[in-house]
Structures are given as C-alpha cells and as structure tokens.
Amino acid sequence: MGMLAYMQRTTVKLPDDLDARLRHEAERRGITVSQLTREAIETHLGATGPRRRLLAAGAGASGRDDISERIEELLRADAASKTVMRRPARKATPPSH
C-alpha cells in the first residue's frame, strides 16, 4: 500500500444505480471500487505512463476453478439445453433443360 502515499483522495457523487453497478463490477472482478474507478478514468482520459493494461483480463472470471477440467461436460450440457431449429431438407430437383 505504499502507492497510496502518491495518490490524491477525491470524492465523487454518483446516482444510486451507477454506484450499485460500480460496486457489482468491482466485486465481480475481485478488485476494489477505487481500483476500478482509477481504471475507468484512465480508460476514459487515456492512461499516462509506461503501464499497459489488458482491460479484458478477468472479464470471463466465473469464480470457479474447475472450468478447464470440465469444459467438455459443460459444453455438452449447454448444447443439450438448447433447442436447435433447422429447416427441413430440400428435395433435390433435376436440372431443367
């Protein structure tokens, strides 16, 4: 936390719905609201300095640690739960002369 010595504290007033979305997203990513706020501001204003971020990192985080081991099972279950609508096969018609 030595990094906090170089940061300014800023108060931002947010509507309740935006505050809820911010907190939900921070929790989903497993980061603090402050970190998410800094990332959003850097993204909006353009990051300065040599740091580069993979903004999509963690976007698919499910909180489960067995997904890669169970991928085939999960894909089969997902496919079985969906109804696929197909067009009836067209009959082959002989070429007209």
Summary?
This protein is mainly alpha-helical and 97 residues long. It contains 3 helices and no strands. The mean pLDDT is 77.
Describe the protein's topology:
Elements: H1 16-29, H2 33-45, H3 71-81
Helix pairs in contact: 1-2
CATH architectural type of the domain at 11-48: Orthogonal Bundle
In terms of DSSP E residues, the strand content is: under 5%
Encode the helix/strand succession as letters.
Answer: HHH
Shape: elongated
Return the CATH class of the domain at 11-48.
Mainly Alpha
Question: Could you please say which CATH topology of the domain at 11-48 applies here?
Answer: Arc Repressor Mutant
Subunit arrangement of the protein? single chain
Rg on CA atoms, Å: 24 Å
The CA-CA distance between the termini, in Å, is 82 Å
From the helix content, strand content and strand pairing, which structural class follows? mainly alpha
Number of strands: 0
Largest sheet: none
Helix content estimate:
25-40%
Report mean pLDDT, rounded to a whole number. Answer: 77
Which parts are unreliable, with pLDDT below 50 for 5 consecutive residues or more?
none
Count every helix, treating DSSP H or I runs of 4 or more residues as helices.
3
